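Appendix B. Chain record.
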Amino acid sequence: MLLASLLWTLVSYLSVFVLVFLFVRGVCYDIARTHIPQGVPQSRIMRFTNFVTRALMLLGVILEKLGICHRYKIWRVIINGIPLKKSSKLTIKDLFFDEIPVRVYWPKTSSAGNRRGVVLIHGGVGLFGSIQAYERVSRYIARKSDSVVVSVEFCLAPEHLFPAPVLDCCTATTHFLKNATKYGVDPNRIVVCGDSSGGTFAAAVSQHLATKKDLPKLRAQILLYPFLQVMDFNLPSYQQNHSVPPLFKKRAIKLGITYLTGKHLNVDGCMRNAHVPPDMWVKYRQWINPDYIPDEFKARGYVPMEPDPFNQEVYEQFKEAGNIMFAPLVAEDDMIRQLPETFLVTCEYDVLRDDGLLYKKRLEDNGVPVTWHHIKDGFHGIMFFIDYGPLETPSARSGFKRLIHFLEGL
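C-alpha cells predicted for this chain:
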C-alpha cells in the first residue's frame, strides 16, 4: 500500500514536471521563431503580448488534453481581465436587443438632443473576446466622443459556428436602428465599429443592412485592421509579417478555420493558396491582387508567388471563401456602392494590412468616402490596449484620437 502511494506520488510529480517542461519549451520555441521588426519602438509590448498569447494557447491545449476544459474556455476567462470600477462619467446597463446580450454606455453629460450611436463589435476571431474584455475600449469611445455605445455579446465558436456570431451582430444592430430614440440616439447617426475580426463582422453587418429598405441607413462604419478575405494568403503583408506577433500568418489561418468548422486542421495547403479553385482565382483576381498594393508596401522582401495546384481536400476547409459574411472584400460592386462612409485603420506590421488596403481601393473605386489611418509602427491588436496603462502605446492613443475626430464629424 505504501509502495503504491509512493509510486502514485512519483508519477504525479513526474507528470507535472513533464507538463511544465513542455509548456516552457513550447513558449521558448515560439519566441525563437518570432520576428520583432526594428521599426516597432514599443517592441517590449509586442514581446509581452506574444509571450502571453502563446502561453495562453499552450495552457489551453494542455488543459483540453487533460480533459479539464475546452482550450477556449481558459482563453476567454483570462482575456476578460479584472472588472473595472464603476464609472463616474457613464451610465452602464446590461440589456438584451432581441435576445442578444448587449452592454450600453450613456455619457452622463447633458445633451441638446439625441446622441450619436456606436455599435461596438469585439475581436477574437469569433472564438473569444467579450463585452467585458472590451470594457476599456467601450468606455473610452463613449467618454471621448460623447456617444451612446452598444457593445454586443454575440455567441462564440466552436459552440456556435459561422455564421451564427455575425448574425447575432446583425440582429443587435437592427434592433438598435429600429429603436434608437428609445435609447436617446439619433437613428440617422448610428455607426458600426469593430477591430480585427470585429472589423470583419462590422463590414459584414454594413453589407447585410445596406439593402434593407425598411431601416435607417448606417451613418458610417469603422474598421480597425480587419480580416476581409481568404483567397490569397501570400499578399505582401502576409509574406512580410508571417512571423510577426501576435497574429502570425499560420495562427490567423488556423483560428479562421476553427471559427468556420470547429476543427483544428492542417493549414499548410492554405498557406500556399492551394485552397482556391482556378475559376475562383479568375473571378476574384479583379479585386484581390498584389498589383493593387502600392509599391511602398512591397519594400520589405515581397516576392510574387504562384499558388500551389488546386487541392479539393484543402478547399473543403475554406469553402466559404466567396461568402461575403466571412470575406466582405469579395462583395459585388453593386453592394459596395451602397456602403456608408468608412474610417479604416491598417498597421504596417500586421498580416492583415493588405486586406485593409484592398478594401480601401474597392470602396474608393465605388465612390464610398474613406478616411484612412495607417499606423506605420503598428502591429495587430495595438488599439485594444487603450487605457491599459503600460501596455498602451502612443500609436494606439494617436489612432483613437483620429477615430474620435472622425466620429465627431458625423
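Further analysis of this model is presented in Appendix C.
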